Amino acid sequence: MCIVKSSKFPLWCSLHSAFRPAIAPVLGAVVILAGCSQTPPPAPAPAAVSKTTVAAPEKPEAEAEVFKLDPNAGEVSYQRVEQPVTAIATDAFEQQQRDLLQEAKTLLEEKLKPERSLAITHNLRLSTYGQIRQQNMLPLLQSYLVNQQFAAAELLLEQNALTEVAPADRTEFTLLAANFLSDNKQLLSALRWLFAQDELAGNAGADAELQNLLWQNLVQLSPQQRSLLVKNARPRAAAWLNLVEIAVTFAGQQQAMQQALDDWQQRHPGMPELSALPKAITELASTPAYQPARVGVILPLSGNMKALGEAVQLGMVAASTQAPERSLHFIDSNQSAEQILAALETTQVDFVVGPLLREDVDKLQTLPNWRWPTLFLNSKQDNNQPNPDQFYFALSAEDEAAQMVELFQQRHYQHPVLISARSPINQRMAQHFQQLWQEKNGDKVESYSFNTQDELRSLITTFLETAASTERVNEISKYAGSTVNAEMHSRQDVDAIYLLADPTQTRLFKPFIDVSVSPTAPALPIYASSRSHSLAIDRTDIRDLAGMTLTEIPWLVPQQPQLPLRAEYEQLFAEQDETSQRLFAMGYDAMALIGRLKQQQQFPAMLHHGLTGSLRLGKDQNIQRQLTVARYGKGKLTALDATKNN
User: Fold this and answer.
1) What are the residue ranges of CATH 1.20.58 in the chain?
2) How far apart are CA 520 and CA 539, in angstroms?
3) Which long-range contacts (CB under 8 A, 24 or more apart) does 282-285 make?
């Protein structure tokens, strides 16, 4: 057993933490809206748009746009009907549009004929009558979402402001818009609508449901996102951002947080009384945090896994500088359960972190006399009801696969291809990605696996169908009696690739794809996991990976300016590999999580932005991670702007 007080490690005294369209039936009746001269909008990706000129009806009417659903493509297309334009709109035209708008609202309320409500509201969005355009905004958004026209919904929300919505509809519209954007992890876009509604409504028109949603989005923001929003914030938005800063800073410190809240109320007298704020705020203030003075840490400190345990230990010692009043007592997990229990009793710890290895977790977590609140450094794998004082933190590969499913949905990919190397961890990630994709989209992902370089090359030509293109060229050359110079053509329906492979396999794969995709076709986006990332290889050559996007823990993505902790680590441990660095980051975050677990248990939306990712407490007391999304380009790996759909 080893006892560590942070003051004994001066080395660390200066460290600081730092659309999808899926509509089958064709619209039975074509809706012609008189007096609405308009042109078809550019189709939001990924919905394919076709424009066709059709014959005008026998009775001349005003030019209109007809929203048509193609049953074969399963996608939305627009047909432009060329008709004479009525010179001046009359009250009859306005009444016709009002009647159609009411029909659309009724259909939406009764959940009938979603395609017809979509056709009506989509046409009315460019009505010449301003009041109708305002009153149409809510049913238009509802129609887009009901018909799964998600890219169109995003475009609508991006291009409009709350003042363009009818006043009577603003609360419901904001709630619908913010929930949609929040579900798609577009926090800043959701907050734009929530802040706008809060500013317009003030305290008198405050809506509890909207305020709760506002708070749920605020507590998920990273420090960088909060700083970005503060720069141009209006007074009420600035007050909310200051409030979340208080909550993040003082959560678990009951007296300090209450004093900070009282001070906030005095500085922002125009904001709601504390009693009128979302309950989560006052609950956070009244929920005591774990504040252990003595922490027992169980790690493999001998045997074959010693290097893993020491990497985690190093991260914990580094983090201990943030809580100098806390002592760490390290216990080797290569002992019997009885010996470990005895060591914990002897040192009189009041919190336990570890063990790290699966077999050690299994031998300790179900002991009847295990009485300490514990953060196990592995995942919970049984189906038993979790103990409220037992938490699980693992660098789960499944978290990465789940995040990629969400990312593909946000970018409206409809036909991704999954390619995985035949290793246990890659196959596990592939299975999890496949399962989640099928649950969310109803269909299976086209998938391939490989072992060797030859298999990899072969499967690329197979799924891109370049072999068939080459064969056709050869046949033409044969009939022509001479060699025909023609470009190879690859299939066009694949919109993204998710590659699960090691760094060497990844560097073979990317060039194969680059030379196999048709020169005239758009670049095929390639995504990978952190398993494709190698710091050592990045130092020598990343040219083959230009344009590739991957998920990685923040600790391993270069940041500007560089964190003080990162700079000191590189100076002291320049030769540490990725595995050791990930475990260092895990140890660091484990220490930081101790004082936040009770708050996250009370309010699961609350995030801790750590070295291993954005961490929240999820199902069965498991810590879930959201990694940084980064892309290779211009000779380096760079984190993508979380505020943009890169």
Assistant:
1) 21-147
2) 33
3) 283/602, 283/603, 284/247, 284/251, 284/257, 284/599, 284/602, 284/603, 284/606, 285/250, 285/254, 285/257, 285/258, 285/261
Q: What is the pTM of this model?
A: 0.78
Burial class of residue 98 in the structure, from the number of CB atoms within 10 Å of its CB (0-12 exposed, 13-18 middle, 19+ buried): middle
The neighbouring-strand residues paired with 447 are: 418
Residue 25's identity, in one-letter code, is P
Residues 339-384 have pLDDT tens digits of 999 999 999 999 999 999 999 999 898 888 899 999 999 998 877 8
As given in the structure block, the two tokens for residue 544 are: 């083959």
Rounded Cα–Cα distance for residues 525 and 570 (Å):
32
CA dist list (Å): 161 to 124, 166, 331, 421, 591: 17, 11, 58, 47, 43
Tell me, what DSSP letter sits at residue 412? T
Which residues belong to CATH 3.40.50.2300 in the chain? 1-18+289-394+579-624, 397-552
Query: In terms of C-beta distances under 8 Å and separation of at least 24 residues, what long-range contacts does 177-185 make, across chains too?
Result: 177/141, 178/210, 178/213, 178/214, 178/217, 179/213, 180/145, 180/150, 180/153, 181/157, 182/213, 182/216, 182/217, 184/150, 184/406, 184/409, 184/410, 185/406, 185/410
* pLDDT lower than 50: segments of the chain: 4-89, 467-489
Neighbours of 339 (CB within 10 A): 13
Cis peptide before 355 (omega within 30 of 0): yes
For the structural domain made of 21-147, what CATH number should be given? 1.20.58
Q: How many angstroms from the chain centroid is the CA of residue 410? A: 8
Tokens of 624: 């879930």
Interatomic CA distance for residues 628 and 531, integer angstroms:
14
Q: Are 251 and 599 in contact (CB under 8 A)?
A: yes
Q: What phi and psi values does residue 630 have, to the nearest 5 degrees?
A: -130, 160
- Interior CA angle at 398 toward 392 and 400, to 5°? 110
Query: What residue spans of 320-357 are helical by DSSP H?
Result: 337-347
pLDDT in tens, 470-517: 444 344 344 444 443 444 445 677 889 999 999 989 988 888 787 666
Q: Which two tokens stand for residue 139?
A: 């049913």
> Where is 435: in which H helix or E strand?
helix 424-441
Sheet with 374-376, strands from edge to edge, namely 2-5, 327-332, 294-299, 351-353, 374-376, 390-392
Domain 397-552, architecture per CATH: 3-Layer(aba) Sandwich (3.40)
- The amino acid at residue 608 is H
CATH topology assigned to domain 1-18+289-394+579-624: Rossmann fold (3.40.50)
